[in-house]
Design a protein that fits this description.
Keywords: Membrane, Transmembrane, Transmembrane helix
Structural class: mainly alpha
Strand content: under 5%
Order of helices and strands: HHHHHHHHHHHHHHHHHHH
Distance between the termini: 137 Å
Shape: elongated
Helix content: 40-55%
Largest sheet: none
Number of strands: 0
């Protein structure tokens, strides 16, 4: 078929009646598949062209197609109990297909297809999920002690090994004393009850039983009973003194109080009996036992006083730090430096004490000069200008340059924690020597003391004669009245003026030795903390 084109003069051919409009699909005449659409308009010679109206476009139906579900990009929230939640699959809804009409009838606009609504899934029935058994978290105990733990064992414990050994011994003694609290309390109660009963009998026999009357017909019986009662009372007094010191070992006033009580019984009771009761065979055992018991009570009190003095010497360095130290800080350095300080002693330099810090020590002029800061004239605690230069990272020449502290001359070592720590090592090294030095000094001056005491004994013979209470004061009739009385006197023993002087000499010698111990301790304190030896 030849190709042709209409010109503007030519009119379009008329469309036969009943023909489908332009653009519509032709009705199929047989079930065979429709041939491919031609690329251009072609008319045969038999076709008659007829004019036709402009076609009306048919709008295409808009069918909403549901898209795939948008996944939740947020992180799932994990509930407190980790129980797996079953996942419910989303039901897929197929998209309905629109059938295409294959008739030759005029095309009818497609009806609106309703949008399919998604069907809500049924609520999931939660099934009980067994909760897993709770397994306790096992925290393994540390098998290796860190340096921090090593340095912090024992609150208030010193850092050096020497002082730490003495401190450990003190802690063991304290533990033993705490364990004896129960038995000491029981002993004090028993001694108090028995001692009060014995003292009541002594008072009744001397005041109302006629023990001070030499012509009493029951003198022999009173002598025996008062001997037992006075001996029992003094045993109870010694036991009560020991129990009281065990219960109140932390009170440093009990030792002196017990010493005073012992002196009263040793010197006071014989004088009272002689002046107000009378010297008889019955009162002789009372005076003798009270004098001997008072001597032992004084010894017990002196032991407690010596222990209190030793504790005072031990705590004196800490008191001096609290009282005088205000240069620097009391915080100690890191654990590594504190481990190094365990080997510190009175000869250790400042960089081996527990206050030195490695970051400062590397640039410290005293350390570089291998001289202690108290001899160098300035250090990391007193010279803040030098420390500022080290912290700023300035050169070594600038750090070594003179500062305001170095120009002042005398550094404030007496108020510095580092220097007081050095003096603490020195004091605790020398303070244990106080007791042996006191004993040695007492032994050396004891012959001289005896000579001076003999001179004083002769000069104050009247005073010592008042203190003497012995069998020589008894009359001959009293001594020979009965064999029982002689036996009682022999059991008590003869106490002459020389015996009383000897006991008094020893007692005052011990008291003078205790005073010497205190003054030697004071001298060491002055030499170390005041004179800065």
């Amino acid at each position: 078929m030849p190709d042709f084109q209409f010109s503007e003069a030519d009119s379009p051919p008329e469309r036969p009646q009943g023909a489908p409009p332009e653009g519509a699909l032709p009705a199929p005449t047989n079930p065979e598949p429709t041939p491919a659409k031609p690329t251009g308009f072609q008319f045969s010679t038999e076709d008659v062209l007829a004019p036709q109206p402009a076609p009306t476009p048919i709008p295409k139906p808009v069918v909403p197609i549901p898209g795939p579900p948008i996944p939740n990009l947020k992180a799932p929230t994990v509930p407190a109990p980790s129980i797996p939640i079953p996942q419910i699959p989303t039901r897929s809804i197929p998209t309905p297909q629109i059938p295409v009409a294959k008739t030759s009838a005029p095309a009818v606009p497609n009806p609106a297809i309703p949008t399919p609504q998604p069907i809500a899934p049924k609520a999931a029935v939660p099934h009980p999920v067994p909760r897993p058994a709770t397994v306790p978290i096992a925290v393994p105990a540390p098998s290796v002690v860190t340096p921090e733990a090593l340095s912090d064992i024992g609150e208030g414990a010193p850092q050096d090994n020497f002082s730490r050994g003495i401190w450990d011994i003190g802690q063991k003694i304290k533990g033993v004393l705490d364990a004896l609290e129960g038995p000491a309390s029981w002993l004090l109660r028993v001694a108090a009850v028995v001692g009060i009963c014995a003292l009541a009998y002594i008072l009744a026999a001397t005041l109302f039983g006629g023990a001070g009357q030499s012509g009493n017909p029951k003198m022999a019986e009173l002598t025996k009973n008062l001997d037992v009662a006075s001996r029992t009372f003094m045993f109870c007094l010694i036991a009560a003194s020991v129990a009281t010191l065990l219960l109140g070992y932390e009170d440093n006033r009990l030792g002196i109080a017990v010493v005073v009580i012992g002196l009263l019984f040793h010197f006071g009771v014989p004088i009272v009996i002689k002046q107000f009761v009378g010297v008889t065979r019955a009162t002789l055992p009372i005076a003798a036992h009270f004098r001997q018991g008072g001597y032992f009570v004084v010894m017990v009190g002196l032991v407690k006083a010596v222990a209190d003095t030793a504790i005072w010497l031990w705590n004196l360095p800490e008191k001096m730090k609290t009282r005088h130290a205000n240069v620097g800080v009391s915080n100690q350095a890191e654990a590594k430096q504190r481990i190094i300080a365990r080997e510190a002693n009175m000869m250790s330099p400042c960089w081996k004490l527990p206050f030195c810090r490695e970051s400062i020590r590397k640039q410290c002029p005293a350390f570089l000069a291998k001289t202690t800061c108290w001899k160098f004239g300035r250090g990391c605690y007193c010279d803040t200008e030098m420390i500022s230069r080290i912290v700023r990272g300035e050169s070594l020449d600038v750090i070594k340059a003179p500062t305001q502290q170095s120009r002042q001359g005398k550094p404030p070592c007496g108020r510095c924690y580092i220097y007081l720590e050095h003096q603490t090592y020195k004091f605790r090294m020398l303070s244990p020597l106080v007791l042996p030095v006191t004993v040695l000094a007492t032994w050396l001056v004891w012959p001289i003391y005896i000579r001076f005491f003999a001179i004083g004994d002769k000069a104050f013979n009247s005073i010592f004669s008042t203190l003497s209470f012995n069998s020589s004061n008894l009359t001959s009739g009293d001594m020979k009245s009965s064999a029982e009385a002689i036996d009682a006197v022999s059991r008590v023993g003869s106490n002459s003026a020389a015996d009383i002087a000897y006991i008094t000499q020893n007692l005052f010698g011990v008291l003078l030795g205790f005073m010497l111990l205190i003054y030697i301790s004071k001298f060491i304190e002055w030499a170390i903390y005041k004179a800065k030896w």
